[in-house]
Each structure stands twice: as C-alpha cells, then as structure tokens.
Amino acid sequence: MTTTSTDHRADQDAAGSGGLRLLDVTLTLGDGDTAVTALDHVDLSVAPGEFVAVVGPSGSGKSSLLAVAGGLQRPTAGTVHVAGAELTALRDKERTATRRRHVGFVFQQSNLLASLTVREQLLLPLHIDGRLDNAARARAGELIEAVGLAHRAGSRPHQLSGGERQRAGLARALMTSPAVLLVDEPTSALDRVRSAEAVRLIAEQTREHRTATVMVTHDTAIMDAADRVHEMVDGRLS
Ligand SMILES: Nc1ncnc2c1ncn2[C@@H]1O[C@H](COP(=O)(O)OP(=O)(O)O)[C@@H](O)[C@H]1O
Ligand SMILES: [Mg+2]
User: Fold this and answer.
1) Which residues have a beta carbon within 5 Å of ligand 2, which is an ion?
2) How many C-beta atoms lie closer than 10 Å to residue 67's C-beta?
3) pLDDT surpassing 50 at residue 2
4) Which ligand 1 atom lies nearest to the CA of residue 184?
5) Nearest to 111 by CA among 53, 157, 159
6) How are strands ordered across the β-sheet holding 180-184?
7) What is the DSSP letter of 34?
8) Nearest CA owner, ligand 1 atom 16
C-alpha cells in the first residue's frame, strides 16, 4: 500500500482531533504451530463523539482489538493512533503515560483494587497524575451518582455485587473524560434496566466529551444505541 503525504496528513488530522485510528493492524499471538492470528489486517477509525459497537463470536479477536487499540498490547504490524499520538511509535513508558491520560478501559471483570473504596478507585488515576483537585472530586461524585452508587461510595469491592462492581468500573473509566473509551462486554452482570442505564451513560459521555468509543457486546439494545456496528470474524473486521 502506498500513502501519499496528503493521505498521511488526513490521517494525522483524524487522529489529532482526539479520535482512534487503527491502520492495517495485525496481531499474532504465540509462535510456531500454536500461533494464532488474533487480528488480521484490521482498519478502524472512530471519530471524536462516535460510538462504535463490535460484535462477533467468542475467540474472534474482540478483546485483542481493544487491547491493541488502547496500547495494552503492541500489534505485530500496523499503526495505532490515539488522541494525536502514534501509540505504536512510543516507548513503553510513554505509551503507558498516554494510555493513562487518554484511554479509558472498562473490562468485563471490573479490576477494582481490593483495598480502595469506590470513590478512591475513581480518584486514584488523577492522584497518580497529580491532577486531583476539587473539580475532580466533584466529577467523581457526579459519576458515582450517575451509575447509581451514591450509597456505595465508601464501600470496598468485596462489599459490592457483581453489577455494582461493573458500574464502579464504568464510572472509573469515565473519570478522566478519556479521548478513547474501550468497553468489553460491560453489561454481562447487569439486569436489563441497569444495562440500559449504563449504555445511556456511555452514549451521553461519548457525545458530551467527544469521546471515541468502541464497545464489544452481544446485547442488541447496545447495538441500537451505537452509530455503527462492526462484525469481527476470525480476526477480521467487517
Ligand atoms: N495470550 C494469548 N496467547 C495465545 N493466544 C491468545 C492469547 N489471548 C487470546 N488468544 C487467542 O486469540 C484469539 C482471539 O482472542 P480474543 O481477542 O480474546 O477473542 P474474543 O474477545 O473475541 O473472545 C483466540 O483464538 C484466542 O484463543
Ligand atoms: Mg473477549
């Protein structure tokens, strides 16, 4: 593939405005006979304020897509741009810093820290970055309320239900108003009403904060809320 300098500038603009762009991304896991092509020449652009859903069977590469898009995993080939930075060109330390500043992850398992309360989970990333101020505290309160955990703000993960943990994980990911929000089957532990609320919150944050959002899901209600739906099959994206 040839890329003219004009195309290159257009790519930079798309990424530079805060969106997400994967260009010809391949990810091979393992080696030799056991090598798996988790991502096979994937192209994906998500503009700021856009909400994209990804569906596909188990093992098709959906979680790998999110891991590479957010810089948790380096692709074998191809480039990833996040919020104007080419993640794939950064050293590990810079990539981690870019991820912490610009990417919000919501995993299926909420990955909360056992020793921290819900409120502390939200404040920790800003504390690490030296950005913990009154505005951040206020936003934490608003998000905790928005996910219906106001009465749980002082609780630790072991005191929460699976659904409450998932909602705490969502609030934490939204805390930094990330340029890119990557959500992996977020509503598996939520009932229909809570699930609809979580999706509404994500859609709202996507519009308000101009977030480029990618959500992996099996939930048809979520697909309806998305601007676009892509299908992943054997590491290839429709
Ligand atoms: N650490 C790993 N080592 C080897 N293969 C892996 C690893 N993680 C995932 N895979 C394989 O990569 C493919 C895609 O996995 P994944 O991205 O988790 O799919 P999905 O999220 O759609 O279920 C699967 O075949 C899976 O078995
Ligand atoms: Mg998965």
Assistant:
1) 62-63
2) 20
3) no
4) 21
5) 157
6) 103-106, 180-184, 212-216, 51-55, 228-233, 236-237
7) G
8) 61
CA of 40 to the centre of ligand 1 (A): 13
pTM of full prediction above 0.85: yes
Q: Which residues line ligand 1 (CB under 6 A)?
A: 29-30, 36, 38, 56, 58-64
User: Which domain does 172 fall in, by range?
Assistant: 5-235
Ligand nearest, relative to CA of residue 107: 2
pLDDT value at residue 173 = 92
Q: What is the CATH number of the domain that holds 204?
A: 3.40.50.300
Residue 169 pLDDT level (bands cut at 50, 70, 90): very high
Residue of the CA atom closest to atom 14 of ligand 1: 61
What's the gap in Å between 105 CA and the centre of ligand 1?
A: 18
**What average pLDDT is seen over the chain?**
88
List pLDDT tens digits, range 17-72. Answer: 579 999 999 999 988 888 999 999 999 999 999 999 999 999 999 999 999 999 99
CA distance 65 to 205: 22
Q: How many independent structural domains does the chain possess?
A: 1
